Amino acid sequence: VSDSVLVGDDQSVLLSVSAMNDGEGAYETELVVRIPEHTHFQSSQGVNRLVCVQRKENQTVVVTCDLGNPMKQKQKVQTGLLFSVSHLEEVESHITFSLRVRSKNSVNSSSNQVIVKVQVKAEATLEIRGGSVPPEVLLPDLDWQPGVNPQRLEEVGPLVEHVYEIKNQGPSSVNARLTVDFPSTWRHHFLLYVISTPSEESLSCHTLNTSEVVPLELLGNFTTVSQSIQQEETNSFRQTVHVNCSSRETRCVRFECDVMDLGRGFSAVIKVSARLSMDTLMQTPYLNYDIVSSASCDVTSATSKVQPLLLSSGHTQTQFSVVWRPPHGEKPVPIGYIILSVISGLLLLCLLCFIFWKLGFFRRTRPPTDDGDGDGEDNGQHQLAEESHMTE
Question: In this predicted model, what pLDDT tens digit does every residue of 300-313 receive, in sequence order?
Answer without folding.
Answer: 999 999 999 888 89
